[in-house]
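Form 7-S
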Amino acid sequence: MAKYSIKDIEKLSGIKAHTLRIWEKRFNLLEPKRTETNIRYYEDEDLKKILNVALLYRKGFRISQIACLGEEELSAKINSLSKSEENNASRIDNLVLSMVEMDENKFEKLIYTSIMQNGFEETVINTIYPFFEKIGVLWQTGAINPAQEHFISNLVRQKIIVAIDGIVERTDRNSKHFLLYLPEGEMHELGLLFYYYLLKKRGHKITYLGQSVPLEDLQKTGKFLSPQYLITHIYVSLNCKKLRKYLEDLSDFFPEQNILFTSFDPEISKLEKRKNLQHIKEVSQFIEILDVIQLD
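Output:
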């Protein structure tokens, strides 16, 4: 069972820690446990309850009304809301609930509804990306159960792969060849898979090498295929110093290719400027680059 600090609950629910403490005191809404050193913490059931409370609160229910609801009444209110049109913030909260409860049916309903309303691309950009940002900090600090994170990540991965397979391949005179891969030690491929989807949707040729590709193998493949672009995501496998060295080597090994990469390392701005290296900070920037490529 995971343990959550009040700051974790704040980040997941969007309810300020100060407000949560007031609700606890005035309405007995939650009863946090305490460690031997008297530090409060919350468990999965507390998180599920406060996420449901937050959903109702954002829908206009007064906290005094919500606090009077029993567990069954609270669930009934949430179920009735899920049948009506959801805004994106509520959908993201419900995705968090589906992760905590490991409820695949709830996840499927939420994503299916969003895709029907907004399309797959908009669903990933406006719902799934913010959802993963919301749980990212908790995953890094160990507050999220790894099984829960793997559960939801694999469901999202399945959706992206199905969407890729559903695109009819097409090429035109503006099509470019992209080589997509993750460096050795990198296993988090959701972002790279979505880039694959965006490229295929726009009619480009893609060679997808996937996870943990050694640099030596990448060199051989790149020499054989001669793609115009390389795309990679670097999250956890390289520290700042090694990351800079890796990117500089990559630039030297592929001087004729445009190299697009993502990284969360704040020190990446110190990288020596290379003409063929471009840091992608967010997916909207990548889409803008693709729009320019389409016009070449």
